Amino acid sequence: PTSDLETICRRDVASIAADDSVLLLWVPMSMLPDGLTVMARWGFAYASGNVWVKDRIGLGRWFRTRHEMLLLGTRGNPPCPAPGTQWESVITAPPGRHSEKPANYYALIESYFPTLPKIELNARTARPGWDVWGNEAEGG
Hints:
The protein is α/β, with parallel strands linked by helices. Helices cover about 20% and strands about 25% of the residues. It has helices spanning about 5-10, 30-40, 105-110; strands spanning about 20-25, 45-55, 65-75, 90, 120, 130-135. The protein is globular, with a radius of gyration of 15 Å. The mean pLDDT is about 90.
């Protein structure tokens, strides 16, 4: 089931995030302002973003979208990737099940933060080395 904006904003993400941490937040284009609101309410400042381009057209009111945004927010002073190791800002990958994100985004996150703790909220599946929270993830 989906949650409304206020329910999402009230999640106590600040209590599980390190003082110096990065938030990566998926946002459909139609909900971009909501994503920025959630990020701020959770105590993160918007820093950058990435675009996932899909191989087929989805729904949309004004435009039928083929992409989603991955917003990057920071709290404190987390480490940035070393110069020259940054991924491109656009990644093309086919969509999977509803709301499932491509595996190469996990690879991106793990390459940027190989030794730091990670948690996925609303996880679809458990992932080695990650904590997960979600009604579809075993152990979540």
